[in-house]
């Protein structure tokens, strides 16, 4: 599988969304981000073996930066926790287009 699939499968990353490859590759979306050419190659490589020691080390940081840009676009709804108290409330989904939260239909 790809680096992105591997990274999104790590426990704790389940609420990160998959940023489309074409969005990542678009140079406009990379403007102002640090130049991580080698890192970008690892992220975009369709085959990734996590047992190999060939990762650059900045993949998580760079994916996080492009992920932030992607979710701030009006195309994406975001998971939010209405409370920081454990089991007090369920995750809701925030829609930036309507500026409102909805119950998470996946649960």
UniProtKB/TrEMBL annotation:
What is the superkingdom listed in this entry's lineage?
Eukaryota
| InterPro entries cross-referenced by the UniProt entry | Casein_kin_II_reg-sub_N, Casein_kinase_II_beta-like, Casein_kinase_II_reg-sub
Q: Which family does the UniProt entry place this protein in?
A: Belongs to the casein kinase 2 subunit beta family.
This chain belongs to the protein called Stellate orphon protein at 12D-like
Name the GO cellular-component terms.
Answer: cytoplasm; protein kinase CK2 complex
Cited Pfam families = CK_II_beta
Q: Which Gene3D superfamilies match?
A: protein kinase ck2 holoenzyme, chain C, domain 1
Give the matching SUPFAM superfamilies: Casein kinase II beta subunit
Q: Which GO terms describe its molecular function?
A: protein kinase regulator activity
Name the gene that codes for it: LOC117150042
């Amino acid at each position: 599988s790809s680096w992105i699939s591997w990274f999104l499968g790590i426990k704790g990353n389940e609420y990160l969304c998959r940023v489309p490859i074409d969005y990542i590759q678009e140079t406009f979306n990379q403007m102002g981000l640090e130049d991580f050419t080698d890192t970008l190659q690892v992220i975009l490589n369709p085959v990734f073996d996590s047992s190999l020691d060939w990762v650059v080390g900045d993949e998580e940081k760079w994916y996080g930066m492009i992920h932030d840009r992607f979710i701030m676009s009006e195309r994406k709804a975001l998971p939010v926790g209405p409370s920081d108290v454990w089991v007090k409330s369920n995750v809701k989904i925030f829609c930036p287009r309507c500026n409102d939260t909805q119950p998470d239909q996946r649960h």
